[in-house]
Design brief:
43% helix; 5-stranded parallel sheet; 9 strands; 4-stranded mixed sheet
Length: 189
């Protein structure tokens, strides 16, 4: 049986990756596997090619766009691309894996449009922009300028929430995790 698709999108710092990683580590019965996206940014910390992302040069990324290899992609900032390869997703679905997309909001909307009812789209929403600022500053991974850029983008991204199947407000991480678990479990049944 082909795997189903779980799309999780959110503004940067909303807790999306924390929730997704928890689901995958603590609930193996869901048979969730990451869709490994491509990016043209450099690896951060301990990220490895083919594990968290496929790291491509901007030129390699543009070539794959020209060849129509992406299910979705976006140039988030100049020469900073993110995208999902069609072949990678289909290979995983054929193996019966339930594929999880940890993607930006536009990518999430595009994947949902492509797969329709085969996909569940979730939007993880921060309780407020002020709380989002606190979280991003607490990470200590971005410059003040980058944080301002992310916050400005987050305000725009929040306008996409109504296009998702479910919105989960992450003002309490444990509650958001449990709510996500229930929604995902119900969808996969």
């Amino acid at each position: 049986m082909k795997g189903k698709l779980i799309i999780v999108s959110a503004p940067s710092g909303s807790g999306k990756s924390t929730i997704v990683n928890w689901l995958m580590q603590e609930h193996p019965e869901l048979r969730l596997y990451f869709s490994i996206s491509c990016t043209s940014r450099a690896p951060r910390g301990t990220e490895q090619n083919g594990v968290e992302y496929f790291f491509l040069t901007p030129e390699e990324f543009k070539e794959k766009i020209q060849n129509g290899e992406f299910l979705e992609y976006e140039e988030v900032y100049e020469n900073r691309f993110y995208g999902t390869l069609k072949a990678q997703v289909e290979r995983q679905r054929e193996q019966g894996q339930n594929v999880v997309f940890d993607v930006d909001v536009k990518g999430g909307v595009n994947i949902k449009k492509h797969y329709g009812k085969k996909a569940l789209s979730l939007f993880i929403q921060p309780p407020s922009i002020e709380e989002l600022r606190r979280r991003l500053e607490g990470r200590g991974t971005d410059t003040p300028e980058a944080i301002e850029q992310r916050l400005s983008k987050a305000e725009y991204e929040l306008t996409f929430a109504p296009q998702f199947d479910r919105v989960i407000v992450n003002d309490n991480l444990d509650i958001a995790k449990q709510e996500t678990l229930k929604v995902v479990s119900d969808f996969l049944k």
